Amino acid sequence: MLDEPDKAAPKYRIGLVARLTGVSAHQLRIWERRYHTVTPARTEGGDRLYSDNDVARLRSLKKLADLGHSIGRVARLGEPELVALLAMEPPLAEAADGSLLAERVSQQFLECLERVDPLEAERVLARAAIAFEPELFTLEVLLPAMREVGRRWSTGAFTIAQEHSASAVLRTQLGALMRLYAPEVGARVVVCATLPAELHEFGALAAGLLAAGRGWKVIYLGPNLPADEIADAVARSRAELVLLSVVLQQQGVREQLTRLRAALPARVRVIVGGAGVRHLSDLAPGLEVMERLEGLKAIL
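Structure (tokenized):
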């Protein structure tokens, strides 16, 4: 068995690597230049030399590409993530109906919350975040799961502890997704939050996840923030979009929204979404209402 130094030693020329991996020499060069899949050593004459580690990684990437994964996405993953994705049970990687798979993952997530197992809930979402495209992950995995958590909490089927556990897992997933789909330098900035006394943050989290998957730099402030704090964060981050979630009918919501709109420059777009927006009317000019998260797709 080779030890780690042997595995990392450059030894294979590109023609042999093409035969070992099933990726043509031309494609290998494109993958390296465009996606930085591996970084082979060079001979004195400039020829590429690949290690056993390089060959193993390229084989994994080839398998995932053959299963329909975007090479641009999987090329960003480290070795543990590649191994986890390849080891994933076949339905997640191979089945054709993404909606059915998304429903299955949502159910697995809810089962973890039922038994208060946040670590396994995180693992379920982490695997799904790699397997699904960002938009499908957010809209068909996370959003239905969050709505179901809210429904169960409102009916007493879920305790406050279970709801809080779900929020904690989703906050972790937002951070992980933002690392997986790190925004480019100069990416557009969006601030996501909820207003004072609004502790239900699922909508703000989902909006942040959708924006992160579409390349935005997300500033997630969390729940229960006054208008002036949100405005300050917008100014400091130079955000051009604010996404607010309103679930409950709270006193003072209109006043907070009016105050926030007045504190922001006209260039900053403010969108209010969530179950509570149906009770809002006569909002200040410059405030937009969006009842369903899916509507953000046309904006982001």
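The longest strand covers residues 189-194. The first helix runs from residue 4 to 8.
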